[in-house]
Amino acid sequence: MPKINAAALPFVARGGYPPPYDKAVAGRSRKRLGDEVGLTQFGVNLTKLPPGVASSVRHWHENQDEFVFVIEGELTLLEDDSETLLRPGDAAGFKAGVANGHQLVNRTSSDTIYLEIGARTPRERVHFSDVDLVATADEGVVHYSRRDGNPL
Question: 134 CB contacts (<8 Å, ≥6 apart)?
């Protein structure tokens, strides 16, 4: 089994959202641990959020489960009707198909480090709760549109 020296891997900042939605995650960076060993069925990332940065735009997935585990710092989990503090040792999971948008935000003055694990299905549709945005993925190619299907 390949061993990963996670400490030696750099945190890499890579957004993905189209403007202006990319601003919410500006500063987020990841060590793509699963990619390091060639995993294809699910992703495993060690993610760093500086103060004031979000993990994503608040969203939910039709086909992909997600799981997070806080290692260092504190995050605020925002969902449709609640906010929950997550501290080291806390975990949260988001089942595919549950239309409750989620987002993690670092509201502290220190970096937060957490592990994120998510399914990698060939096709996916992601709904964004607070903005007129939908992402569709087909074999890894992601397209963004408005909720009515029109281009951005």
Answer: 125, 126, 127, 128, 144, 145, 146, 147, 149
